[in-house]
Structure formats: C-alpha cells, structure tokens
Amino acid sequence: MSTDYQQAREQFGAQLRELRLTSRLTGTQLAERLGDGWTKSKISKLENGKQTAELEELRQWTDATGQPEAYEGLVAQLRGFRSHIRSWRKQLAAGHKPVQQTIAAEYERSRTIHGFESVTVPGILQTPDYARSIFTRYAELQRSRRDTEEAVRARVQRQEMLYAPGKRFRVLIGETALRSLICSPSVLAVQLDRLTGIIGVDTVQLGVIPFAASLKIPPTGGFWIHDERLVTVETWHAELWIDDPDSIATYLRTWQTLRESAVYGADAQNLINHARQALGTR
Predict the structure, then answer these.
(1) Half-sphere exposure of 32 (CA within 13 A, CB side)
(2) Each residue of 168-195: pLDDT tens digit?
(3) How far is it, in rounded angstroms, from Cα 213 to Cα 191?
(4) 76 CB-contact burial (10 Å; exposed 0-12 / middle 13-18 / buried 19+)
(5) What pTM, to 2 d.p., does this model score?
(6) What is the CATH number of domain 4-83?
(7) DSSP 8-class letter at 79
(8) Where are the domains of the chain?
C-alpha cells in the first residue's frame, strides 16, 4: 500500500535516477564510479524509494554524475520529508483499516521492533474488545469513518507476527496502561489476562515500568522503532514517520533509558495480577 511518505521517497529517488540518466551512466557504472560501499543494488534501492540517501551519499551522487549544483536542492527536499507528518484527518478519510494495513507492512519489513506506550496497551498486544474500544473512541474524536470491525480484524491479524520466527518485539509499557479504563473493567480484565499470557513467549519481551520506579527521564508519548530505519510517533493531530539516523539513535537511547526502570518476567506478571485483582471481575 502506497503512502504519502513512500510516495515522497519514490519521487526523491526519481530525481536521483534523472541525474544518473542525464550523465548517461548505468547503475553498474555509477556504482563503480562511486567506489567502496556502493553496489548496483544500492543504486536501485535509492532510485526506487526503497532506501533513503544520507547527506554524504547525496554529495557523492551529485559529484559522480557531474552535477554538484543539484546537491543543495536535494538536501532541502530530503529534510522536508524525513520527519514526515501524516495527518490523521487525511489518513482516516478511508477509515481505520487502511492505517492498520500500512503499519502492518512496516512490521512485516522489520526484524526487531522496540516500542513504548505509557498509558494504553500497545495495538500489537490488544484483545479484540480492547481494540474495539480504542477504535470507537478515536473515531469519535477524529470524526472519522466508522469501520471499527474491519480495523479490529486488521489489528488482530497483525498480531500473528508476534510468533514469526526471526522477529523480536521489545515492548515497554507504563503501569498506568494496566489500569487505564479506556474500556469497561471486564474488557480490561481480559486484556490483562492476555498480557499475562504473552510473558514467556520467546519472540516477545514485555517490560512494565512501575509507578514507584526511579526514572532517569520522564516518559512522554509512545513511539515505535522498526529496526534502525524508521520511528513512528503518534500525536493528537498526526503521525510522524522519522527516518534520519540521528533522530532514530535518539529514540533508541530513550528506549534503552526507559528500559532501565522496567521490570520483567515474574515481577511484571505480579504488577499485571495486582491490576487484575483491583478490578474485582472474573
């Protein structure tokens, strides 16, 4: 599924291809001219929007194609979409299901996913009823198309990746997420049972940051890191897709710092059980 973000990358790649064609170079010839670290495959990925060039790579590309004057314009365009703002109003025009399919495609591409949510259970771990409550409330807030059941199915289908060999999910949640009544108490009780059941799955590491934990940094909004190539951050009005290395490194450091305050295994299970008992439901 194509997105505004991906379309911007493809358009950027088309400009790189035009520079190469103008210089009458094949992909192989350009790779040879660029030297170490460059292959025909890399040239193709950059030109087709499968990979985003770094600033130094842009400099090398424009120099190798004999068009150094194109560098500044490419840099300005690159900076314009690296932190791409994808407004919810535009994304949700066709409903919540397409958004779920788009993010599922990124999960499919990723081997290691680091995530943090402070006040809600992450979508990748939600039960259908919990997800249904989330979609219903956000549809009300955003005044978006109500395709709740389709969105729930898409979200639950994505969870099959939790058990895929070779994938690793490293998820942190705040203890607040165990107690926030974004849904009914009975639905939250089942959701907490689901979290208990996920502890011990070899592809998932779930950490809970207790209320009483000593924090090196104050937690803010949630974010998700896909390998070391993309970070997604949700705000009230939009979703940010960030792919510049410095920002990704910052989010990875943030995740690692938050991780130091989390508990795992039996300790995490105890927190979940205490929250479950506090609901007083069966």
Answers:
(1) 5
(2) 999 999 999 999 999 999 999 999 999 9
(3) 23
(4) exposed
(5) 0.72
(6) 1.10.260.40
(7) H
(8) 4-83, 95-279
